[in-house]
Amino acid sequence: QVQLVESGGGLVQAGGSLRLSCAASGRTFGIYAMGWFRQAPGKEREFVARISRNGDNVYYADSVKGRFTVSRDNAKNTMYVQMGSLKPEDTAVYYCAADPYVNLSNQPSYWGQGTQVTVSS
Q1: For residue 23, what pLDDT is reported?
Q2: How far apart are CA 72 and CA 76, in angstroms?
């Protein structure tokens, strides 16, 4: 099992940047594929980005491609997402997720509690 804790959320103006972190417990972080999802008020949770267990494969939702960069540091048991050129429509609770596979599935096994990102216009 792995426990996930997100941090780094907050309020930012449109066009600004934020970096979210997802810290994982345990000494086997490197076996987990990781990813980010988000849920805006009144909307379903949606996929944002994912990164393979060794970091050599990344994939983004079209809505964030070119603006967000996902990365991981297995030595620090931490995944990141650098978010730039933020838009009001990026406002959501952001969740990190993990699966004990090479790549993240559509329904990950493990979830963090979420961190709020609010982008003002």
Answers
A1: 96
A2: 8
At 6, the amino acid letter reads E
Q: Which residues contact 41 (CB under 8 A, 6 or more apart)?
A: none
CB 71 within 8 A of CB 55: yes
Spatial separation of the C-alpha atoms in residues 42 and 76, rounded to whole Å:
35
Quick: pLDDT tens for 60-111: 999 999 999 999 999 999 999 999 999 999 999 999 999 998 899 989 999 9
Three-state DSSP state, 31: helix
What is the pLDDT, as a whole number, of residue 73? 94
Please return the burial class of 45, using the count of CB atoms within 10 Å of its CB with bins 0-12, 13-18 and 19+. Answer: middle
CA distance 100 to 28: 10
Residue 58: both structure tokens together: 């990344």
